[in-house]
Amino acid sequence: MRTVTDQNIAEQVADELRAAIHSGELAPGERLVERKLADRLGVSHIPVREALTRLAEERLIVREPRRGARVAELTASDLDDISSLRIVVEQFMAIRVQERWNADAATRLDAIVAAMGAASPGDIDEVLRQDRLFHETLAELAEHRFLDEISAQLRGRIAGFIRAANDALGVDEQDAHVRSHQEIVDALASGDPERVRTVVADHITRGARRITPTGADA
């Protein structure tokens, strides 16, 4: 994490902590001590407290009485709930993209899939960067601001777990991951909404199967 020095300090602190959670730098279950985080980021404890409140609202962290804050873990039921909701949201988003399909949308998504496919074997950072860009571009093409926010929040809740799962991808699995994005593009271009729904659901379900929950269901 970088030292924070500019304006909107609480927002910047939240961005830094969010990125550290998404990348796995801050691991599920790890305790978050305000004083230590403030020292690490070069800020006072007040913006750190505000940032932690924001991340708790996003369910990226949990705060417990007399025990402070810790990075949220993921139970099997959490994963099932998030994945099932992602399927509904991203199917709806993809159908909106299909309804607006044009040459520009095809070119943009094809370029992202090509860049993902060009990543060196084991270069998970690049694969995930292009993966995130792919879904962000879909959200943009759907032309629905609130849908974009909901999709980003759902993906953010499991981003760190996606990263951990994809770190273990072999070469064949990496290739299959790229192909699954090409299948979405092909389905969008087909004009068949049922094909889009099926491909999106399969894509999210396969990804969820690679994730290992870290917490126990109550």
Task: Give a short synopsis of this structure.
The chain is built from 9 helices and 3 strands. It is mainly alpha-helical and 218 residues long.
Describe the structure.
Helix 1 crosses helix 7 (about 145-165) and helix 5 (about 105-115) packs antiparallel against helix 8. The protein is built from nine helices and three strands, in the order αβααββαααααα. The protein has about 220 residues and is mainly alpha-helical. Strand 2 and strand 3 form a beta hairpin. It has helices spanning about 10-25, 35-40, 45-55, 75-100, 105-115, 125-140, 145-165, 170-190, 195-210, and strands spanning about 30, 60-65, 70. A three-stranded antiparallel sheet has the order 1-3-2.
How would the blueprint of this fold be written?
Blueprint: H1 9-23, E1 31-32, H2 34-41, H3 45-57, E2 61-64, E3 68-71, H4 76-99, H5 103-117, H6 124-142, H7 145-167, H8 171-190, H9 193-210
